[in-house]
Amino acid sequence: MLFTNNLSFFRTAALLMLVSIVCAFHYQAVDEKIVFERKVTYPVHPQFKSQSQDILDGLEAGGILQRYLHRFKPPGRLYVEFYDGEFVVKQGNYISQLDVVEMPSVSFESFFPLSWSFLNGYYTLAVTDMTKTSQSARAVWVNMRVDKENVKTGSLKNRDTMNDSTMNAEFFTVGFDPQDDADTLVPYVPPYITEPDGVHQIVFILFRQPRKMQPLQRLKFRDNWGSTIQGHGVQDWADYYDLQPIGLNYYTTSDEGLFYDT
Question: Residue span of the signal peptide, if any (predicted)?
Fold first, then answer.
């Protein structure tokens, strides 16, 4: 009798364990499906593939986050301008420190059709200062929204591309104003290079957030993007929050002997 009861107990325990394993796999599969559904892809329209490749070539020429962006296909062009367009960021062009003191204006031009998903998404804009050996955070704005009243749409015809009579979808340009539309995670600080340590690459990255409101976990310090690990940068920070890059642009600057005695 005792043996029978023990056998029954072990059978019940084994059954419960099997059920828990099946449930675990089930919930894991559900969670993976949810994560997959959150991942939004923006396939580049064939008419814009050459422009997308030009952006990628510019990033590779500058050695910008090559490991992080090894599968990145730019789905649009990120425009960054200072002083109402007087100084425009153009894939690695040189701009003096004195010309980037104020916050820039930022806009995004798509290589894919306008969608409800993009209009209603949340976005992050990060600015990182890259040297040969390290990175530091210059600014981070999170929870940015698209200003739906100021979305400029147009067909392929008026985007200076070849006509495509079968393409009726609208492509678009939209501006982002971090001061009004976002939470400031790291206040903007322009480059302030006080030593002759070579060329700095100031990289602007527009990310799509995987969920609505990002948690406001401020960086303890700007160097190495809040880490004590040398070489830690924006790519590690973005991966932690599962951010998806959709637009990049950068300029270069240097000390110019402005803030130190030669």
Answer: 1-24
**For the chain, domain boundaries:** 1-38, 44-253
Q: Strands across the sheet with 152-154, in order?
A: 87-88, 76-82, 105-110, 171-176, 152-154
Chain position carrying tokens 């990289």: 203
CATH topology of domain 44-253: Phosphatidylethanolamine-binding Protein (3.90.280)
User: Using CA of residue 155, residue 59, residue 92, residue 205, what is the dihedral sign?
Assistant: positive
What's the pLDDT score for residue 201?
A: 96
Q: Which residue has the tokens 């923006």?
A: 42
Closest CA to 48 of 177, 161, 137: 161
Tokens 């949340």 belong to 122
Residue written as token pair 């990049």: 248
pLDDT < 50: residue spans in the chain? 1-4, 6-7, 9-10, 16, 18-38, 160-167
At residue 157, the pLDDT reads 55
